[in-house]
Amino acid sequence: MRKKIYIALFIFITIFTGCSQMSNNRAEENPPQRDEFLKEEPIKTQADTVTSIFSGENLPDEKIEEIQTECSDLGSLYKDIYLNAEKNPLSDWDNKKVISQESIDKIEDVLKKAGYPVLNSSYIYPPFLEHSENFYAFWNSVQNGVDAETSYWEISDSGGLNYYEFQYIDGKPYSINAFAEWGKDGQLKIESAGKRNVLNWDMTYHGDFYYQDVPTDRHWEASILLRLKPVDKNLFELTEKYIKPIGYYNVNAFLCDWDTSDYGNLCFNDLFESLYKMENNDYVYTDQFEKEQYPYFHYCVPAETFENTILPYFEIPLAEFRERTLYNSEKDIYPWQDINVSNVSYFPAVISDVMESVENIDGSITLKVCVMCPDMQTDRLFTHEVTIMPSDGGKFKYLGNKITYTGENELPSSQPRISAQRTDTSKAAG
Questions:
Q1: Cα 390 to Cα 231: distance, rounded to the nearest angstrom
Q2: Exposed e or buried b for every residue in 122-157, given b needs 16+ CB within 10 A?
Q3: pLDDT digits 0-9 by tens, 25-38
Q4: What pLDDT shows up at residue 24?
């Protein structure tokens, strides 16, 4: 995930470099008064060739040179791996070439063994910081009001180096970023760098770190989570299999209390596309269904498709299911709305972690899930327990959900998309 962010960041740099240049041109129209006969050509430094990071401050020459020296040192450790790595064009960016995750893993291993704090990345598991003990020491100094700094490295998908540094000076937090790429001369060179004020940062209850250093008028995807230790792989795989495919956006399966004896406010209709993808490993394409505007906008999903998609994941009688899902017996269809401007409910990015898995006497398992929201500066937005009955062939059924804790922050909306299913239309989006 982080690598996609850096691709987007590079695009921002390219666009706003032009804006920065326009600003420089305006400044040159009214230069400070000085003796015109003593003009001299300025001596170019390395900082003159480094693009300022969007919304950040320029770094002084000495700091850029310091980071450049470290980049060169690290580059010398893995240059051979980079040169021998196969480089392929990025699918949506022909001018950029990337190396394989296998090559990135080899580079990270070299830097890790050399003692450098480096992000350990993976296609499967979230990246985490190797040698994070220095980061904990840094945070301890911050908590005690002592000036401190710490830094770490990340291998970009192109094989370059991303440098991150946090500073705490005179009670104020800062972040420094620098991004280096391999040049045609076979050397790593910093291409962009900058310094920002950190707007908020904190250590989570579970010992990870999050921060925000980019102002935004939107309250989502503003903060970055830096994991300081690896996730429990077994628990993470449970999150990926049972929780993430459904999630918390415009679907309420994990946002209300229900079980097989009382399905409460659970909206089955909104589960259609999530379960369809789980069942068929493909997305739902709306053009395969007829659509109607009365009595509300909806797509007409054939009963066989709808029932074969959702019923395998729940224990509910067909008659009750049809009653709860606005089944149209005349047309033998179910109404379904995809997420659109009339029903979407926006919310900041949330991260769910299964913290514990409990085996029950009847063979079911209960997953205890903690949901964090860095943008709201909380690592415990709410917690819930999901009970699941596994079966042969990797199949399973959802047996219930229970909210076990909610803090003072607002939660994602639990209102169904179709207005006729909403229990409180005043809370509905759109």
A1: 23
A2: eeebbbbbbebeebeebbeebeeeeebebbbbbbbb
A3: 433 434 444 333 33
A4: 42
Q: Which residues face 57 on adjacent strands?
A: 195
**DSSP code of residue 378:** E
Q: Is 370:348 a contact under the CB 8 Å cutoff?
A: no
Query: Can you tell me the distance from the alpha carbon of 153 to that of 132, in angstroms, rounded to the nearest whole number?
Result: 11
Burial code (b: 16+ CB inside 10 Å, e: under 16) for 42-77 equals eeeeebeebbbbbebebbeeebbeebbebbeebbee
Residue positions counted in the chain: 430
Residue in the block written with tokens 């991004």: 179
3-state helix, strand, coil in the chain (%, to 5): 30, 30, 40
End-to-end C-alpha distance for the chain, whole angstroms = 30
Q: Which domains does the chain have, with CATH numbers?
A: 2-226 (no CATH), 232-430 (3.10.450)
Kindly write down the DSSP assignment for every residue of 191-240, as one continuous string. EEEEEEE--EEEE-TTS-EEEE-S--SS-SS--EEE-SS---HHHHHHII
CA atoms within a 13 Å half-sphere pointing along the CA-CB vector of 263: 15
pTM summary value: 0.80
Q: Which amino acid would we find at residue 402?
A: K
Which of 401, 393, 126 lies closest to 243, judged by CA? 401
pLDDT in tens, 225-244: 999 999 999 999 999 999 99
